Amino acid sequence: MFELVFMILASPLGTLVLSAFQDSLYAVIVLSDCDECGFNDLGKLLFGGLILAIIVGVGGSLLWRRIREKQNSGSEFVSIKSNGRA
Hints:
Largest sheet: none
Structural class: mainly alpha
Low-confidence stretches: none
Number of domains: 2
Shape: flat
Mean pLDDT: 79
Distance between the termini: 61 Å
Number of strands: 0
Radius of gyration: 25 Å
Order of helices and strands: HHH
Strand content: under 5%
Number of helices: 3
């Protein structure tokens, strides 16, 4: 298992993904650098991030459900059961 992960990370695509992830982490660190932020402010930021994640998750699931309903408007179920008895 570890060999597979190592091979993926050593591939050109894996290094590209890993470097993009590393760059995004650096950007988050630079953007979140706040000299006036105390411990209480970090709790507010964490709570705000949690609420934002819940809102994005609910919105995404509602959007996904509406797209799925529009695509499957017709029923593809075919019954082989006869209505009358002979």
